[in-house]
Structures are given as C-alpha cells and as structure tokens.
Design a protein that fits this description.
Belongs to the short-chain dehydrogenases/reductases (SDR) family. GO terms for molecular function: oxidoreductase activity, acting on the CH-OH group of donors, NAD or NADP as acceptor. Keywords: Oxidoreductase. InterPro entries: NAD(P)-bd_dom_sf, Sc_DH/Rdtase_CS, SDR_fam. This protein is an alpha/beta fold. The protein has a single domain, classed as NAD(P)-binding Rossmann-like Domain (Rossmann fold). It is 44% helix and 15% strand. It is built from eight helices and seven strands. It has a seven-stranded parallel beta sheet with strand order 3-2-1-4-5-6-7, sandwiched between helices. Helix 1 packs across helix 7. The model has no long low-confidence stretch (mean pLDDT 95).
C-alpha cells in the first residue's frame, strides 16, 4: 500500500529551478515522477535535474518565461513529446519587493503581479486545459504564501498577489472538479529563499520568530511531504480547493 507512488506520472514544475520549487521537484522525482524542470536559468535547472536523478528520478530541463503563453504552450508540446502526458502542474514562480506603499510605482506592481499571478493563470490555462480535455484527472499545485491570508508589512504587492492566487485556486478547483483535476495550494511560512532574503533584516527576523511557535525558519525540504501528498491521486483524491499550510504555527499565532 504505497499512497505516494508517482511512478509513470509526469510533473511540470514552473519555477522548478528555485529554492523551494527545486526541493519539491526532487521529492516528486524521488517518488517516481518524470519531472519537467521549467525556468529561465538553465544552470540552476540543470543542478535540480542532477539532484532528481541522484534521488532515483527522471528529469528534463525546459526553458520558458512563465509570463508568456507562447513559452508555456511550447513547454507543453515539448513535455508531451518527451513522456506523452502531464499529470501534475506545480506553479512556483515568485517575485517580492519591500517598496513602501506610497513609493510603489505601477511598473513594479505590474512586474510582481505578472510573475506571481499572471504566470499561475496562464499555466492553469495551458496545462489545466490539457488535463481537463484528456479526462484522466490530474493535480495542480499553486505555491502561495503566509502573507496571502494575513497581509504582512513591507510586502504589499506580494501579499496582494498571493491572496489572488488563493482565490484562483479555489475558483479553478470548482471549475475543474468534474474532470477530476484537483487544484490546491501550499501556503509556506518563512523559508529563507533568494526572493525574500533581501527583506530579512535583523528586526524582521526577530519579529518573525516571535510570531512563529516553532521559533525557526522552515527548511525547503519540509515542503516535500506536502507536495508529494497533493501530487498523489492515491493520497489526496478527495482534496481540492485546499490551502495546505506549512508554516511552523505562524498562522495560528495571535498574542
């Protein structure tokens, strides 16, 4: 009885060369999935591919700008030429900024919204439509943020974009359910990664620790279990529209 066996499945990880996306990609590969690592930085993608292979999985690298539908359509065609199927889509792109609200310019707003929200919508249109049309089910996993539910200071646009990702997740869960395509989101707490290190000043870290009952940051590998669970039809066949929190208790903390 192996609820987490992904053998024969193909997982497309948009932003699979990022810190968190890479860790989850390795986990899916290690549980048997063929993993398409999608990103713009080929060097980082190749590093993730090697780690997936070291974990006993199979992977290929695909280059794409996640905000361009043409790029995503090409990735879909290339992945289908590689394995003939897409069973799992994970959306991991992320962009952050500490710009104060009154200093925010709309070009920065647009850039963050394009990466964090538009990319998710486009990927769900391209890969989600393929899953719905083929009629064999599937799993879409969007990576949200703790700031999506409780807006955090210093990250206004990021918080707004991730709140929208939660809404998109629930909307598509309802829309895609008749085709057995499940749509869920993972809400990570504080996992130091490339995109948020620039806002982790000493006072910020102290504030986060005071609000996190486990009193530490998360390690990227601690998202692997949630990713494998949501990817596996055996383990999470009746889970859709869910926001799965992995945050060390941050969201449960008040005073």
């Amino acid at each position: 009885m192996n609820l987490f066996d992904l053998t024969g499945k193909t997982a497309v990880i948009i932003g699979g060369n990022s810190t968190l996306g890479g860790a989850m990609a390795i986990a899916l590969g290690g549980h048997g999935a063929n993993v398409a690592v999608v990103g713009r930085n080929a060097e980082k993608s190749i590093e993730v591919k090697k780690k997936i292979e070291e974990a006993g999985g199979s992977a290929e690298v695909f280059s794409a700008d996640a905000t361009k539908v043409e790029d995503l359509q090409q990735v879909l065609a290339d992945v289908l030429a590689w394995t003939g199927r897409v069973d799992v889509l994970m959306n991991c792109p992320g962009k952050n900024s500490p710009t104060p609200f009154f200093d925010l310019q709309m070009d920065e707003w647009d850039s963050i919204m394009e990466v964090n929200l538009k990319s998710v919508v486009l990927a769900c249109q391209v890969f989600g439509k393929h899953m719905v049309d083929k009629g064999e089910g599937g799993s879409i996993i969007n990576i949200s943020s703790a700031s999506s539910e409780i807006p955090l200071s210093r990250v206004f646009t990021y918080s707004a974009s991730k709140a929208a990702v939660n809404n998109v997740t629930k909307f598509l869960a309802r829309e895609f359910a008749p085709a057995r395509v499940r749509v869920n989101a993972i809400i990570p707490g504080f996992f130091p990664a490339e995109q948020n290190r620039k806002i982790l000043s000493p006072d910020r870290v102290e504030s986060i620790m005071r609000h996190t009952p486990m009193n530490r940051f998360g390690d990227a590998e601690e998202l692997q279990g949630a990713a494998v669970f949501l990817a596996s039809e055996k383990a999470s066949s009746f889970v859709t529209g869910s926001l799965l929190t992995v945050d060390g208790g941050f969201g449960a903390m008040t005073i």
